[in-house]
Specification:
single chain; 473 residues; ten-stranded mixed β-sheet; five-stranded antiparallel β-sheet; globular; RluA_PseudoU_synthase; PsdUridine_synth_RsuA/RluA; RNA binding; pseudouridine synthase activity
Length: 473
């Protein structure tokens, strides 16, 4: 008997996610088997959202067993009257057109629960379901720490490398899904502030809609102060440094931003917490390093011998990548930033003071960044210690050259430790009126290195706040 394709159609209210994604790149999980192309496709309803989640821990990483997953989306207005195959070819380019045609023919793409041909004309009210075999990247196995919890709110310390929402290649490997897995499927955590996948630190998860709306309103009205801590290249200047350069998004697809005169207004206050100079290696070891094949490349890297600073960051506005972009512009990018401290993308000066793109055009930067992790290994740590630089280049995520036995999807190697962490941490959130404050511990990378002394905690925000007010006069 021919195997069947298992899909399930649900309304938005039945979707496990509290905020359903309107695109075919979000939906409900199902077990599924793939029918052969020679057999007529059949559709069978199966239990959705399998429980427990298919996690397992290995080599310090949280992994997800590959699984079938069904994306559901209602017909968009611009899709009306267009052929199904045309929609997939034009709007979804993550796979070749041949894949989508085969998926339609096998019944992996159905409309209103029924198999249709590639020439089917989509109508208003149609529900399109697409079943794929999902491969999620592994993330750190570090647990999600709880700083505070009450009847309305959970304040967590998010590990670096873990996305907040299911998005892109990540689904179960996300803060929302991990919390549901740990506490039960009835928990619907509502994130109230945004942290990038690589950024660690304080996040607010509301337990109900009323609490979420209240905190989101506070944050949007700028009655909440937030402080980050970053580890940056070189010796950061003394005193409070205010950067008010405007920021423009030059590539939504790559989430790439730059300082631009025609960008959106942005302001960040910085203050150095500590500076740690480089430790010179013994002369013998240094000679051996210079004899290695890639010694010339290492010697030319700006920042290799500059040491690093731990910097406090107070973002007055909330632009995407604001702290990372402003630090790059000031000439002190976050030391392991895979985008803004990547010399293969930005060149020797890393975009310092390049507000008019005279050193690197937007097109050049986007082209180089798009190649990272595909034709070449992502150089996620531009200023890593010379002794381990070569090792970390090998331990980076890239296409392995192998294909999945089930779906023939190209497989990636595991990400390296440097690709699971950005040395940027959400340290503190507090109400400007002093009614509440939450502070997380300093991350390990911000503590004094072995053999050196330095601060292990951060004081109040008065100096940073005063610098904002003085700069506004």
């Amino acid at each position: 008997m021919a195997a069947t394709v298992a899909t399930s159609l649900v309304t938005d209210s039945e979707t496990p996610s509290p905020t359903p994604d309107p695109t075919p790149d979000a939906g409900v999980t199902h077990a599924a088997t793939i029918s052969s192309a020679a057999d007529p496709p059949a559709v069978a309803i199966t239990p959705c959202d399998p429980w427990p989640r298919p996690y397992y821990i290995e080599d310090g990483l949280r992994r997800v067993v590959p699984y079938h997953y069904t994306y559901n989306t209602w017909c968009k207005e611009r899709w009306r009257g267009r052929k199904l195959m045309e929609i997939f070819e034009v709007e979804f380019r993550d796979r070749p057109a041949e894949y989508y045609r085969t998926a339609v023919e096998k019944g992996l793409v159905v409309v209103n629960g029924k198999a249709v041909g590639p020439d089917y004309v989509v109508k208003n009210g149609d529900l399109i379901s697409h079943t794929t075999h999902r491969h999620e990247p592994p993330i750190t196995a570090e647990p999600i720490g709880v700083i505070h919890e009450d009847d309305d709110l959970i304040v967590i310390n998010k590990p670096s490398g873990v996305p907040v929402h299911p998005a892109g290649r990540y689904n179960y490997n996300s803060v929302v899904e991990i919390m549901k897995s740990e506490r039960g499927p009835d928990l619907l955590p509502r994130p109230c502030n945004r942290l990038d996948r690589l950024t660690s630190g304080i996040m607010f998860l509301a337990k109900n809609q009323r609490a979420a709306e209240r905190l989101v309103a506070q944050i949007s009205q700028r009655t909440v102060r937030k402080e980050y801590i970053a580890r940056v290249v070189g010796r950061f200047p003394d005193g409070e440094v205010v950067c008010d350069q405007p920021i423009l998004q030059i590539s939504p697809k790559l989430t790439l931003n730059r300082v631009r005169a025609n960008g959106k207004a942005a302001r960040t206050v910085f203050k150095r917490l500590a500076y740690y100079p480089p430790a010179d290696p013994p002369a013998k070891d240094r000679t051996e390093q210079l004899a290695t094949p890639d010694a010339e490349q290492r010697a030319q890297r700006r920042g290799d011998r500059e040491g690093y600073s731990i910097v406090r960051c107070l973002p007055v506005t909330g632009r995407t990548h604001q702290i990372r972009v402003h630090l790059q512009f000031l000439g002190h990018p976050i030391q392991n930033d895979p985008i803004y401290a990547n010399q293969k993308v930005w060149g020797f000066d890393l975009g310092r003071n390049d507000a008019d793109a005279a050193q690197n055009t937007d097109e050049d930067v986007m082209s180089r960044l798009a190649r990272m992790g595909k034709e070449e290994v992502a150089d996620a740590v531009a200023y890593y210690d010379e002794m381990v630089d070569k090792y970390h280049k090998k331990k980076a995520e890239r296409m392995s050259g192998e294909l999945c036995d089930v779906c023939e999807t190209p497989l990636y190697t595991d990400p390296g430790a440097q690709e699971l962490s950005l040395w940027l941490h959400s340290l503190r959130y507090e109400d400007a009126n002093g009614t509440w404050s939450y502070v997380s511990p300093l991350p390990a990378w911000a503590l004094p290195p072995s053999g050196m002394t330095g601060p292990t905690q951060v004081g109040g925000m008065e100096d940073l706040v005063n610098a904002v007010e003085a700069d506004s006069i």
